[in-house]
Input
Amino acid sequence: MTVYFIGAGPGDPELLTLKGARLIASCPVCLYAGSLVPPQVVAGAPADAVVADTAPMTLDETHGIIVEAHGRGQHVA
Output
């Protein structure tokens, strides 16, 4: 499994790097901190991707999503 950490800069979706946008567009699991990152930043995720705001989640919940993705051999951004 590969985990990508993508910086969202000031949070403006139009300022996301091309590489960041490409990674989001190809990842089946996208986790983002909604308290820092607007949902528009991950709007380019695949239609069938798991997209989750981790701000209201516990560490165990976040870790659970990552462990499940690992079990399926998926990448996480």
Q: What stands out?
A: Strands lie at 29-32, 50-53.
